[in-house]
Amino acid sequence: MRLRLEGSRCNIPPKFLSPPGNQTYTLNVGSWLVLNCTVKLFYDQKFNWCDPSIEWSKDGHVITNGSKYTCSEETRFNNNASEKFLSSLLNVSVADAGDYGIFSCLIRKESATFALQRENDASHMPAVLGAVLVLFALLLAGLLYVKCRLDLQLWYRNKYGEFEVNDGKLYDAYVSYVSADDDRKFVNFILKPHLENRYGYKLHLDDRDILPGSEPSAELIMNISRCRRLIVVLSKAYLEQEWCRLNFREALWQLLDLSRRPIFVMFESQYRELSHPAIQLLKAQRKSITLLLWTSTSMTPSSEFWKELRLLLPRKIHQRCVMADPQTRLQDDKDPMLILNPDYLDCRSDPDPEGDLGVRTPIYKGPPPPVSALPKTLKTNHSVEPPYEDIERCEVDIADLGSRNYGTRTDFYCLVTEEDI
Question: What are the contacts of 5-14 at 24+ separation with CB within 8 A?
C-alpha cells in the first residue's frame, strides 16, 4: 500500500511555468538565444528519491553534455517546502541553417517545445504570392487591352468625343478607287453599304483618277473639300495606273495637303505579294497616313478592320428617324417642305388669332375718319368723288404690341398634310 502511494505521488505531472505553451522564435544567422524551461513539482522529503530532471532534445535527438549547446539548472522551493521549482536554461547559438529546428524540454513524460526559424522564412511566401498576383494582373490587363482596346476607344469616342459639325462638309468620306471589277464590287457592295446602312455615314464615291496630272484639278479640290475624310482603296489595279507608277511620291504629298491623315485600304494578299515602291513609301509615312489591311476575317461586322475604320471616321450623331445627313442635324437643317408632319413643328391652328393669350388691357381705337366740310347734297350733285370716302375703318389694337411674342412662328410651315395628300 505504501509503495502504491509513493508511486502515485511520483507520477504527478509537472506544471510548466515557462514556457506556458509552445513558443516560436525567429532569428537571423549569427544570433543567440537562451531557452528557459521552468516547471513546478510536488515535493516531499519522504519521496525525494523520485525527483525528476529536465532533459533537452532537438528534432527528436537528445542533447548530451559536451555538445555545442550549454545547459545550466537551478532549483528553488516555496516557504513550506511543499513545492519545488526546477529551471533549466539552454544556450543556443545560431551559427548556420542546421541550428534551426524544434527544441523540447522533457520531464516525467511531459514536454514543452521551442521552434527556431529564419527571420525571412515567414516573409518569403507573401512576397512570392504578391509577385505572382501582380504578374497575373498585368498579364490579364494586357490581354484585355489587346482584345478590347478598340471597343474601349470606340466607347470613349462615342461618349466623350467631339462632333464635327458646322464645318460646311456634305460627306463624311471621299472614297477613291479604280474602275476594276474587284475594286468596284468591294466599294459598292461591302464598304458603302456597311458604312452607310449600318452606321449612317455618307460617302462620296469617285472611280476616276484622283491625280491624273501633276497638279490636282479644281473639281478634285472642291470634291475633297466637301468631305471630312479621304479613303483610297489602294489595290493592285490602282497602283498600275500611270500616275502611280510615275509620281506617286509627289501625289502623296499633295494628298496630305488636301486631306488630314488620309486612309489607305489594301488587300492583305496583294500587300504581301506586291513589291511596289508605293508600299515602302506608305510604311515610312505611317505617322502621316493610316494603312488598313482587308483580311479574310474582315467581313464580319465585329472585326478589327471596321472598328479601326470607324475610329478614323467622324463621330456620328445617333437620332431616331434620321432623315438627311446626320451630321447636319445639329445645324437646324429642318425643311418642312420635305418632312411630312414633323414632330418639331406645331401644326395646330392659332388658338388666339387676334393676339396673344393672357390678360388684355383696354382697347384704344384709331382716330375717326376726316369729316368733309361740304354738305351731303353737294356731294351727290358732283360727279367727282371726294378725296376721302366715308368708309368705316377697321379697329387696330395697339395696346398689347409691347407684350407680344415675336418669336419664330412654325404653324405656317404646315403647307402639306396627310389629308391633303
Answer: 6/47, 6/50, 9/42, 9/44, 9/47, 9/50, 10/47, 10/50, 11/108, 12/41, 12/42, 13/108, 13/109, 13/110, 14/39, 14/40, 14/41, 14/52, 14/86, 14/107, 14/108, 14/110
Q: For every one of its 421 residues, what pLDDT tens digit does the chain have, with 9 covering 90 and above?
A: 444 445 556 677 888 888 887 888 888 888 888 888 988 887 776 666 566 788 888 888 888 766 678 888 888 888 787 788 888 888 888 888 888 888 998 887 888 899 888 765 545 678 888 899 999 999 999 998 888 888 989 999 988 888 887 888 899 999 999 988 899 999 999 999 999 999 999 999 988 877 766 677 888 889 889 999 999 999 988 888 887 877 788 888 888 888 888 999 999 988 888 888 888 888 888 888 999 999 989 988 889 999 999 999 998 876 554 444 554 444 444 444 444 444 444 445 555 555 544 444 444 445 566 655 555 544 444 444 444 444 444 454 545 444 444 444 444 444 555 665 5
Element (H, E) at 236: helix 236-239
Question: Residue by residue, what is the 3-state secondary structure of 65-77?
Answer: CCCCCEEEEEEEE
DSSP tag of 220: H
Cα radius of gyration (the chain): 51
Contact 243, 278 (CB under 8 A): no
Instruction: Characterize the bridge pairing of strands 70-77 and 83-93.
Output: antiparallel
The residue type of 271 is: Y
Among 16, 87, 109, 6, smallest CA distance to 48 is for 6
